Amino acid sequence: MRLRKVSSAIKSVNYLWNHWVVFPVYQGVADRKIIRLMEQYVNHGFALVIFPEGTRSLKAELIPALHGAALIAQRTGAFILPVGIAGTEQLKGWTWIFKRPQITVNFGKPFQLPSNDDKLTREDATKMIMGRITDLLPPEYHGVYAEK
Predict the structure, then answer these.
(1) 59 Cβ contact list (under 8 Å, min separation 6)
(2) Cβ–Cβ under 8 Å, residues 24 and 37
(3) Which residues are CB-neighbours of 107 under 8 A, at least 6 positions away?
(4) How many CB atoms lie under 10 A from the CB of residue 111?
């Protein structure tokens, strides 16, 4: 029985790798090849999933986002679907599986960043994206994007 479960888990992971294009983006490295590749995918009608912060927060609060998502969105004019995910901090260790923690995923309305003609800086575009994500999260998750 155990062998069957492991086998089905491996098949599930293989399905994801074989049917989804997954590639790592290294934090702090401006890789022009990856940026061009992401732009090509968007321009051909594919969706990208980008976590703007680039890493997980250790405190279950938003941390300063990197500018990669804003860069791609500004260059391609792509729509952005903001998503707020709360409760994942409860997934520590292996015992969480018995506790069945509540994970909440909220989807906002898709939006586009103003065109580059509006002189929107990358930093302001990133703040705009993170503002939409912040609106989808409970106040205790707002972190650096909490209103002061």
Answers:
(1) 143
(2) no
(3) 81, 82, 83, 136
(4) 13
Give the pairing of strands 104-107 and 83-86: antiparallel
Question: Does the reported pTM lie above 0.85?
Answer: no
Angle of helix 32-43 versus helix 68-76 axis, rounded to 10 = 50
Tell me how far apart the alpha carbons of residues 123 and 91 are, in angstroms, rounded to a whole number. 31
Per-residue pLDDT of the chain (148 residues; tens, 9 = 90+): 344 444 454 455 566 556 666 767 777 777 888 889 889 989 999 888 888 998 888 889 999 999 999 999 999 999 999 999 998 888 877 777 788 888 899 999 999 998 766 688 999 999 999 999 999 999 999 999 998 5
Q: DSSP string spanning 43-75?
A: HTT------TTSS--TTSS--PPPSHHHHHHHH
